[in-house]
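Regression test attached.
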Amino acid sequence: MLVQAKGIDTSVWRNFELIATKDHINPGSIRINLPQQQDGSIADVLNKNSALYIKMYAPGSLATTSMRGMGAQHTAVLWNGINLQSSMNGILDLNLLPMFFIDKAAIETGVNASLCGNGAIAGAIVTQSDFQNTKKLFGEFGYGSYGQKHYAFGYGFKSSKFMLQTRGLYKYADNDFEYKNTFKIGQPMERQQNNRFQQAGLMQSLRYKISSNKKLQASWWYLNTRRDLPAVMGAVDHHEYQNDFNAIASIQYENILANKQTITSKLAMTSEMINYYNELLLPAFNTSRSLIAESQYTLKCHKKIEWFNGFNLTYQKAWTDGYRQGVDRFGVSWHSRLSWLANKSFKIHLGNRQMVFDHQFAPSTPDFSTEWVLHPNWKHKFNAAYSFRLPSFNDLYWLGGGNVELKSEKGKKLESSIEFKQNHFRFAITGFFHHVNDWIMWVPAVGASQWKAINAKLVQSQGCEVSSERKWNIGANRLIKWFGKYQYVNCINKAVYGPDQDLVGKQLFYTPKHTGISQIQFLSKKYRIATGCQYVGQRFATADNAVSGLLPSYLIWQLNVSREIDYKQWHSILELSINNLSNQTFMVFENRPMPLRNFYITYKFNINYE
Amino acid sequence: MNNIKCYIFTCLVLTFVACKPDAQQTIVTDDYKGVFVVNEGGFGKANASIGLYKPGSQQYFDAYKTANGIALGDVVQSMSLIDGKYYIVVNNSNKIEVVNQSDFKSVASIACTSPRFVLKTSANKALLSNLYSNSMKVINTNNHSIEASIDVHHNTDQLLSFNSSVLASTFDQKIMVLDPVSLSLVDSVSTASGLSKMVSANQHVYVLCTGLLDWNTGATIEKGAIQVIDDTFGIVNSWPLNSGSYGGSMVYANSLNALLFSMGDNKIVKLNFDGSMSDWLVLPSGQAVYGLNWDAQNDKLYISDAGDFNSSGKVYVYDASALKTKEITAGIAPNGVVFNP
């Protein structure tokens, strides 16, 4: 069986359960597991394995997601339960988070804000770094087109009381791919300039088993990323680049008491520094830090009733060129959840989170969800919830446009899912309805030299998500797997609180109505061949849905061939990936070219020395 | 196995049927006469364009793309007609696209750093102002090359011909005066804060200064003024305004025998040559003036409204009695129009 590069031997070959049946952080929503054993960043993995629309200017550049048509700020990104969204701008750049640091990743569309707190209006991307259960050395090397390369190593140690894991990585890419310049007569092929990507990182995790029911765990990671920022096609290059420094440290204590009571306490600190350089401007230095203390208590009150309570204290501070003196805020929240297992086939969950930030009550976020096993093959889920997003520090305090009068964005949603499972076939369909009021936007003020953050509009999003997977065994050692995902999103401005009434009824820009992905894999004892495609439908580049700003749809194919190589305790995989197989010219953003056909070769290994 | 094949086939077919060809818009035009709209586009988005509005057919289309089959670039600042050719200044593409007046076909592309405005100074010569350089460039309009540089000690913006001189506004409350023949700096004029627009009328130059605002709070630090410069380059009048703003626009309306100006809000003020002012037009709430142009042939005022800089802007057309006659949906962030009757 193929090994997982970081030493987990639950390979994606065996575990094809993409539509997960457990580990939800939100019981009423659909969880889509992302395959492990992937290279690149979390943005790359989402791009290749989900129907989410990942917005990125170029490979390695700022990447965000549009889940159910919502904005980048509306998807919480959690790592080991810690929300990584920046307090400065409310987003996390998904290209900064390398998959080598991640052991499990999943998308939970429609996850409830009561569970994730601020920002989870559309859903959440849930990531987790785990411990290996054996002593292992593991690593990977990669080389590909446009000067792409990466080296990554890890080490895992385990004793009866103590577990340790260390990981380090280095990634580099020139990203000087060729593209068709549509701003020059004859549309010549040119090479992308000023698009280099460089990242180095280190991660350390420790776990100490105090007793059979108590454990202490500490983790930290540090990433330094330097990225050149290429000019838009047709514009002059001002040699822009950005240095990102991201660090997280957390310590967690878990105690399982008698009567199935569990207490988990966590202390975490996140630090983010973004330094921006442009030859025409003075450098811009932006720093934010968060300190999070959280304690959770789960009580099994009755054999059918579970009561969960969580308390969270969060302190955020940031210093940027827009508020050099620094701004901060302190929040307290209480999260309570009651789960009732009525019988083997019916569960009801009631939850709420109440947050108080700087002595002001944030909107309450009650939710109600049910899970009903209608039949051994059929399950129905229902979820209704309120959510909110606090304005970011930039929205509130940026000099010359920040607005301290801003209200929190308020969301409410309904979703209903049907899941079908039979033998090696799974199918899930979810219908959703989101309603977000007081959506925060930056709009030009009078004279157009200054922009201002305002609660600009009411947005309504409705649509459906479909996921399916199927496996066929062919003899003892061969199988074929297929999975497909599709998303339909109709996300419109329902009301606009200002002069731009023309925007009412218009689809949000850069929000395709149709996205989908399909992949088929053939697996034998030592080989894996997979081919798949990603479809992104037409989308508007302008808020008024002008036809001149309609960007064409694209269908991008990829091919992946892997060979497993084992020698004694040395397990390894050699893998070739060809991206954009059909050599299609496409753009995610207007006038931002993406690479044509390109390849990447990876060698991954782990050595079990136990 | 047949079931497997059938299933895989169905999955792949479903993948493909989701795709459909993208709609294309075809515009056919026999000439390039009408009103050109200079659409700046969003900075860093390269969606600038030159639109052409044909009053007869009321058709509007992207003239440069239609004529040349390619996009124009990032942030079009201005367009000037010189010897039968338009010089389209594409600021953040560091270039000037030169196109024929007759068919709008590109004939040359002049590479230059942060260009703003081009003005013909003499036969085969034009001056180019520069946002990020203390020098102005001399363009040879015969071979479309930059052949000289003039040090003017300031970053320059708008250019104006006045009494055998060229005036170049700067971002430092100064107007530089150049000799168009010797192409040398001969004088300078200090103005009030917020030097925004120069207009030649009534044997004088009228300068709209929009004052000084606190960039962080938007509060007015210094109110604006309209200053009058005579042919000796002295300020002969300075009429204070009762507000300040980040920028504004001004035009000479010949049939009104007055100037019309805006401070970038929704108000257009009529300024008589004796300094008296009155509100000439107040646009509906939500509309704002980003550029003003007067069609002297038809006595019409063209008001460019950039909107939210992320949607199609508008151009409103008003007659000399301040009645709206037309509204044109333009490209992204229109900043003015150029008439090609």
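Expected vs. actual: identical. The CA atoms of residues 118 and 128 of chain B lie 5 Å apart.
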